[in-house]
Specification:
mainly beta; 8-stranded antiparallel sheet; 11% helix; globular
């Protein structure tokens, strides 16, 4: 399937605004969870969807920190590579999983015993018009993120954003209780007042097909040099 890349409201402008700093600043751009061309949601073949949960990628092969901020900074945009479910598949998911497909990204602070706490979140986006495409959503208000925090994907309904059939060394975690990993109908997404839970469920051989654009903060040394 040929994928079309869609940039909404010019991600370039969002990055340029975030980098509107004096030339001495060492602010950098990094893509957390960089999506290769082959990464996409599985639909329509063997169509599976992320449903009613918040998740983050634990590892892809040997890489364990793809979605963890290497430095303090701000998330200025996020990207999702969607599969293309057919009309019957779409109707099936919409009927059973709460309506139109929606998703957003959240910043997660690690706690003890695999608990993750939401410290920032972006507005929800409806995904129906972007099936089969790679779409980027620049943020009007960027999300602060600290070194070591994760960027997760929150899906209150469903999203064709799951690549399957990968190696056993690739896995993602979901915000479900350990005894409810197979429960895709109960809402477990971190929304509203529900902001901190154990990410007890680990799903192997699959990848969440999203990424986030990070602009790092200027270092203390650079800020001091400008004074």
């Amino acid at each position: 399937m040929t994928r079309q890349r869609v940039l909404l409201r010019s991600a370039g402008l969002a990055v340029a605004a975030a980098l509107a700093l004096p030339a001495a600043s060492p602010a950098k751009i990094a893509e957390l969870g960089q999506l290769a061309d082959r990464v996409r949601g599985a639909c329509p073949e063997n169509c599976q969807a992320v449903s009613r949960t918040t998740g983050y990628q634990a590892k892809v092969g040997p890489d364990r920190g793809l979605y963890r901020a290497p430095e303090d900074g701000r998330i200025v945009a996020w990207t999702i590579a969607l599969g293309k479910p057919g009309p019957k598949q779409t109707a099936f998911f919409m009927e059973r999983l709460g309506g139109a497909p929606q998703a957003t990204v959240v910043v997660l602070e690690p706690q003890k015993k695999l608990v993750r706490r939401v410290v920032a979140k972006a507005p929800l986006q409806t995904l129906t018009d972007y099936f089969g495409q790679v779409v980027q959503f620049p943020l009007e208000r960027s999300l602060p993120i600290k070194k070591g925090q994760y960027v997760g994907l929150t899906v209150p309904t469903w999203a064709p954003a799951l690549q399957i059939g990968l190696g056993a060394d690739t896995s993602w975690r979901a915000s479900r209780a350990r005894d409810s990993c197979g429960d895709t109908s109960t809402q477990s997404a971190l929304l509203g007042s529900r902001i901190a839970v154990p990410f007890a469920c680990l799903f192997k051989t699959a990848r969440l097909t999203y990424s986030a654009t990070l602009i790092t903060n200027p270092t203390k040394q650079a800020r001091a040099a400008r004074r």
